[in-house]
Each structure stands twice: as C-alpha cells, then as structure tokens.
Specification:
The strands form three sheets. A three-stranded mixed beta sheet has the order 1-2-8. It is mainly alpha-helical. The N terminus is likely disordered. Helix content is 58%, strand content 8%. Helix 7 packs across helix 13, helix 8 packs across helix 10 and helix 13 crosses helix 15.
Length: 380
C-alpha cells in the first residue's frame, strides 16, 4: 500500500547505533529533496502537511536498526529473534525465488512505540459514496490523506466535518515508500500471523518492482497476486500446505465481508440518486448502515473472527468508512492467470505485466478483463 493508505506495539528494546548513520543520511537527503519538490509544485499551499509527512518519515528512518546486528544481541527475546530471522529469510526468498528487487528494504527493524505506522483520513459528502480526492506530486492522486501528526489530522477532520463531510480515520500498520527509501519492518506487524507477515513483504516488494501512476486497482491487484503466489510457493517448498489453506480461508472470509460492504455502497448510491428530502434520506441511510451491521453479525463467529473486521463494524458506519474499503483486487485472478500461463516463471511474468502497464488505461483494462475471464488453473 502506498504512503499516505494493528497489532499491539512493543516496548522499545534497542537504541539506534551510530553505524546506521550513513544510511540515515542518505535517506535524509532524499527526504529533503522530496520536500523541496513538494513545496515548489504546491506553491506552499500544503507546506504544513508535507512537513509533517517529512518529520514522520524521518522519525521512521531514525529508528532503523540493522536486523543482522540486532540478532547478535544475546539478550534478544527468542520470539523476536524468530520473527527477525523469518523476515530475512523471506526477503532473500523474494529475491532468489521470485526475482523481486534486491534493495535495503526489510533488512532493518524499526520500533515506532505505537501500534500503527500512519493514520489515513477519508472524507465523503453526507449523501454520496464518492470519496474526496487529494493529489500529490510524484505519486498522483489518492482518496485519502495520510498523517503522522495527529493534531493536524484532527484539525483537518474537524474542518471537513463542519463542511458536511462524513469522516473516517483509519490506522495503517505498514506502508511502502515505493522504493524511495529502504523500508524497515515495523513493530506494528511483528505480532501478525506468520503468513500475513510473509505476505506483507511480498506485497510491498511487488510495489517496488512495478508501479503504474494513477492506476491503483492495477497496482494493488498485481501486488496481491504476487503476495498470494509467493505465500503458496514459500509454504509449498516447506510442504506446509496447511498454512496455504489457512491463508486462503481468511481471504474467503474477507471476501464475504467485502460483499456486504460493496452491496451496501451500491444501495446507498441508488438511494442518493433519488434526491429525497434530507431527513428521509438520512433515515434511509441509517437503515442501510444498520442492515449492513446485521448482515455482518449473521455471517457467524467463525467467519467474522478471521475476517479482521470486528472492530471496524463495531464502530459507526458512514460513507467515508465504507468508501475506505476499495475494490483493489479486481484483477488479482487475471494476474495469477498470467503467471500460470508462464509456468510461474516470474521473469516472464514481470515482463508481460510491464508491457500491460505501458498500454493506455482503456486497453489495459480490456486486456485484464480478458485474462480474468480465462483464468483457468492458477495454482502451483
């Protein structure tokens, strides 16, 4: 997921060593160049926002600690040692077996001393399912605003709320800087199930391998396909097929929840097209939100407990919250079909995907839909 899109945090265990300073200075220079570009392009209108983004990224950079050096500490708890070794093993596997980029990402660990990396702000009009869009230099436009500075986030949320927007603030456990920096593995994900942690590394490195400007569905579907194929390959090499089953069952559970969210959003869109009196529209909107919660409860504990949405549905539902769940995996099966057509040869797969990325949006969409209809057997 891009910058700007949890589990309980851990107490800080280590201090940053002086040996990390060369890499930190490299990243600091990169941050400085980027913020200068932001200021020139934005005409200083969003300088405060970009500055808080820079300060937040610099804080992450300053907390980086080389994993190999951390593993030399004999007092390191065994659970943490196992997880850090797993990260290094998966990182090497990504390069050797999946031909994902060799870089400094996920070779360092950073403890942020909180259970999230960044908070994303979403906003939608009271009677619309369309999210407000913000545009940025370099990465293009996005339907969220990412904040490290909670005071700025709250101020912006309050301003938008006064303007009549539905507001939702979501915590993001991890993000990718798309290769601009050497991303560390964060404390915010170290408590995740093993397959989820492994999948995160494959997913984010896939963004480093390929990123098409202003085509989020293409980018996220590609990364999700690499994630799924990587998890299957990783566990098949270890003959741990039960882990693949658990991973796919969780995906199925999340799809059932997504179906409720997308269906509710479609029903809301139809409601808003009717242009009813305000109070009538509010009443019917509230009914649809309550119905969505009821449908979620009816899925049953076995599904809801593995979907990861319990806390999400426990809170208030509104247009912004529903809109924050995007249909990012529309082309995942199409990408898996492309990979299968090349007998899981990642080099050939990436080559074809890069060619698709060079097409204009309409032709690219048509080609992906064609692959999706002829997906066939995409498993290993």
């Amino acid at each position: 997921m891009e910058l700007g899109s949890a589990h309980a945090g851990r107490r800080s265990l280590f201090l940053t060593s002086c040996s990390n300073w060369p890499g930190r200075l490299k990243n600091i220079r990169s941050v400085s160049l980027i913020v200068i570009l932001f200021i020139l392009v934005s005409g200083c209108a969003d300088v405060r926002y970009y500055m808080q983004s820079v300060r937040g990224q610099l804080d992450v950079v300053s907390r980086r600690q080389d994993i190999v050096e951390l593993l030399e500490d004999e007092t390191l708890p065994q659970a943490m040692r196992d997880r850090l070794n797993l990260v290094l093993d998966v990182r090497r596997f990504a390069v050797d077996a999946m031909q994902l980029p060799e870089s400094g990402s996920y070779k360092a660990y950073a403890d942020l001393e909180r259970d999230y990396a960044v908070k994303n702000l979403f906003a939608a009009p009271e009677f619309s399912t369309h999210l407000r869009t913000w545009c940025y230099p370099i990465i293009g436009c996005a339907t969220y605003r990412g904040y490290f500075d909670e005071d700025q986030l709250n101020a912006t949320a309050k301003k938008l709320s006064k303007q009549g927007y539905d507001i939702y603030t979501g915590r993001v456990a991890a993000y990718s800087t798309l290769g601009w920096f050497d991303d560390p593995i964060l404390n915010t994900v170290m408590g995740w199930p093993e397959y989820q942690l492994i999948g995160l590394i494959f997913h984010e490195l896939a963004h480093h391998r390929l990123y098409i400007e202003d085509d989020t569905v293409f980018n996220e579907s590609f990364a999700s396909a690499v994630e799924q194929s990587g998890i299957e390959l990783w566990y098949s090499r270890q003959a741990r097929h039960d882990q693949v089953r658990i991973y796919l069952e969780r995906k199925d559970s999340r799809k059932l929840v997504m179906d409720i969210i997308f269906r509710t959003r479609d029903e809301l869109a139809e409601l808003y097209r009717q242009e009813l009196p305000v109070e009538d529209a509010r009443q019917k909107k509230d009914q649809l939100m309550r119905q969505a919660k009821k449908e979620y409860e009816q899925l049953g504990e076995q599904v809801t407990s593995s979907s990861g949405f319990n806390r999400w549905f426990a809170g208030e539902l509104n247009n912004a919250k529903l809109g924050s769940v995007a249909a990012y995996n529309n082309y995942k099966d199409a990408f898996l079909a492309i990979l299968a057509s090349h007998d899981h040869d990642y080099a050939k797969f990436y080559s074809e995907v890069e060619a698709l990325g060079k097409l204009d949006r309409a032709e690219r969409k048509a080609r992906m839909e064609e692959w999706g209809q002829n997906k066939g057997d995409v498993s290993l």
